[in-house]
Amino acid sequence: MLEADLRPVGARLVVEVVDPGDMPAAIAPRRIRVTTRKAPDVAAGDFVALQARLLPPSHAVLPGGYDFGRDAYFSGVGAVGSALGASSLRRRPARPRYRAGCLRP
């Protein structure tokens, strides 16, 4: 999780998607902004698992009005939505080990 905005009722989380589940990786958003009804016991940097209903970021309603879709695009947020049920903390996944080397033909 990148950001956690805890509120009196619920929270707004910006989450980096590590495993999109059934969604093909080619169309999965890199980051999502999700709202929850209950404030979870999480902080920025935690790994969480959750299910969410996602939609594309909305665009300006009026010409010249605030364009959330534009701001979301430039901040890397590809979808917004609400969490379905509770989120759960997960362990930090092990980083893959990469080996640098030369490939010979």
List the topology elements:
Elements: E1 3-6, E2 11-16, E3 31-36, E4 47-49, E5 52-55, H1 68-74, E6 77-83, E7 88-90
Parallel strand pairs: 3-6
Antiparallel strand pairs: 1-2, 2-3, 4-7, 5-6
Helical percent range? under 10%
* Beta content: 25-35%
Q: Could you tell me how far the N terminus lies from the C terminus, measured between alpha carbons in angstroms?
A: 42 Å
The major beta sheet can be summarized as: 5 strands, mixed
The string of secondary-structure elements, in order, is EEEEEHEE
Sum up the overall morphology in one term.
globular
What is the overall pLDDT average?
Answer: 84
- Total helices: the number is 1
Radius of gyration: 17 Å
Structural class: mainly beta
Write out the strand line-up for the largest beta sheet, numbering strands in chain order: 1-2-3-6-5
What's the total number of strands? 7
Uncertain regions spanning at least 5 consecutive residues:
none
Quick gist of this model?
By secondary structure, this protein is mostly beta strands.
Report on the architecture of this protein.
- This protein is mainly beta and 105 residues long.
- The chain has one helix and seven strands; from the N terminus they run βββββαββ.
- It has a five-stranded mixed β-sheet with strand order 1-2-3-6-5. A two-stranded antiparallel ribbon has the order 4-7.
- The mean pLDDT is 84.
